[in-house]
């Protein structure tokens, strides 16, 4: 994401002009947008024209519209973002108050104006515009006949390809069909790696499977790389890392990222930090339950006691449409930071974020134990967007 213009201060009105440069930037933009914001962007509008003879025709024209945001729709697989709203600025093609849907495009700037810019939104802009925050980890999670190729970015887990090939069982006296099917499977996975992984950006490629599937695949991959003289694979061989997983399904990614060897290798990535923080929370909950709280009401009480060391909170809570509820989460984040605590905002598109959402989306590791809070949990603690 490129920051073109910024005229904002915390808790004040203002606007910012940004240009999304890659698919992940759409996810950042989705987290910046709220209903009631003003969005100005280039868009296509179908316009009807009437000639001097009275015949009516229609054409598509590109124009710049400013809409008051009414509906936000994000497709996480395609990373497409559509915003629907009413036109609030004079335009030769669109009447004031008319509805229009804008689909934000890569490499086309947009301007976002808000009445209040809170600390969470400002942090999101900073994160989105940081050139070091890229998809620097890839993972191939596989088992015989099934492989999921995933990119792990600081903000989301993107499934880039899924390979499924039926593998016949070995027959007594002949394994030919089995071996041919395995070669077809490995070839498809290899092509997926070459197509979807940018080796200039990715620092580490995790290859995970139960049993020896990963070892057999790696042997095939580099045997073929030598045969085909694939310089890109041969030059990047040190980036591949073999890890055990219980299955070839995407959900196995969490256990892979928990592996101490993987954690050490990925110590500088946000995704690994999130997984470790959640793992620490579960350990604390098991061994010292008075130092591990979850649910908004309990965590707020711990914050009032200045007891929070690490706050774990899901980003989908900040997309809450009720301003009062959203402000409550922002206030909690600000209080923890002001009191010297660490805040980890989890992406709801990461496996660790999905798990945190099941715990109401907010949890905390405390500096010192607090006796169990017996008050009933506030209903809003499990609010989701």
UniProtKB/TrEMBL annotation:
Q: Could you state one GO cellular component term attached to this entry?
A: cytoplasm
Q: Write down the superkingdom of origin.
A: Eukaryota
Q: Could you provide one GO biological process annotation from this protein's UniProt record?
A: nuclear-transcribed mRNA catabolic process, no-go decay
> Which is one Pfam family of this protein?
eRF1_2
Domain eRF1/Pelota-like N-terminal span(s) in chain numbering: 1-130
One GO MF term = metal ion binding
Q: Which InterPro entries match?
A: eFR1_2_sf (IPR042226), eRF1_2 (IPR005141), eRF1_3 (IPR005142), eRF1_Pelota-like_N (IPR005140), Pelota/DOM34_N (IPR038069), Pelota_N (IPR058547), Ribosomal_eL30-like_sf (IPR029064), TF_pelota (IPR004405)
Q: Could you confirm whether the keyword Metal-binding appears in this record?
A: yes
Q: Where in the cell is it found?
A: Cytoplasm
Q: Which UniProt keywords apply?
A: Cytoplasm, Metal-binding
The cofactors named for this UniProt entry are:
a divalent metal cation
Q: Report the sequence similarity comment from the record.
A: Belongs to the eukaryotic release factor 1 family. Pelota subfamily.
Q: What does this protein do?
A: Component of the Pelota-HBS1L complex, a complex that recognizes stalled ribosomes and triggers the No-Go Decay (NGD) pathway. In the Pelota-HBS1L complex, pelo recognizes ribosomes stalled at the 3' end of an mRNA and engages stalled ribosomes by destabilizing mRNA in the mRNA channel.
- What is the name listed in the Swiss-Prot or TrEMBL entry for this protein? Protein pelota homolog
Organism encoding this protein: Salmo salar
């Amino acid at each position: 994401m490129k920051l073109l213009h910024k005229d904002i201060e915390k808790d004040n009105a203002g606007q910012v002009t940004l240009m999304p440069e890659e698919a992940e930037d759409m996810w950042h933009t989705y987290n910046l947008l709220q209903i009631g914001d003003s969005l100005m962007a280039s868009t296509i509008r179908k316009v009807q024209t009437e000639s001097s003879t009275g015949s009516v025709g229609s054409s598509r024209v590109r124009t710049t519209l400013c809409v008051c945001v009414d509906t936000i729709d994000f497709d996480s697989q395609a990373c497409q973002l559509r915003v629907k709203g009413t036109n609030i600025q004079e335009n030769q093609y669109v009447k004031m108050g008319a509805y229009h849907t804008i689909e934000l495009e890569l490499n086309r700037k947009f301007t976002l104006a808000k009445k209040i810019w809170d600390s969470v939104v400002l942090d999101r802009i900073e994160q989105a515009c940081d050139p070091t925050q890229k998809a620097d980890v890839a993972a191939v999670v596989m088992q015989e006949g099934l492989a999921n190729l995933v990119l792990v970015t600081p903000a989301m887990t993107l499934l880039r390809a899924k390979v499924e090939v039926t593998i016949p069982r070995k027959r007594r006296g002949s394994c030919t069909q089995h071996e041919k099917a395995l070669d077809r499977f490995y070839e498809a996975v290899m092509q997926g790696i070459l197509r979807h992984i940018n080796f200039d950006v990715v620092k580490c490629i995790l290859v995970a499977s139960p049993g020896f599937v990963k070892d057999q695949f790696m042997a095939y991959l580099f045997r073929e790389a030598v045969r085909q003289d694939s310089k890109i694979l041969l030059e990047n061989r040190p980036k591949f890392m073999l890890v055990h997983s219980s299955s070839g399904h995407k959900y196995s990614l969490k256990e892979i990222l928990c592996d101490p060897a993987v954690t050490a290798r990925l110590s500088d990535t946000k995704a690994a930090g999130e997984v470790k923080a959640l793992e620490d929370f579960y350990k604390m909950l098991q061994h010292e339950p008075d130092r591990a709280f979850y649910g908004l009401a309990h965590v707020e009480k711990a914050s009032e006691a200045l007891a929070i060391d690490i706050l774990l909170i899901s980003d989908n809570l900040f997309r809450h449409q009720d301003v009062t509820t959203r402000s409550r989460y922002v206030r909690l984040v600000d209080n923890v930071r002001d009191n010297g605590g660490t805040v980890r905002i989890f992406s709801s598109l990461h496996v660790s974020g999905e798990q945190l959402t099941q715990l109401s989306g907010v949890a905390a590791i405390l500096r010192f134990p607090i006796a169990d809070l017996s008050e009933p949990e506030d209903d809003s603690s499990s609010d989701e967007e």
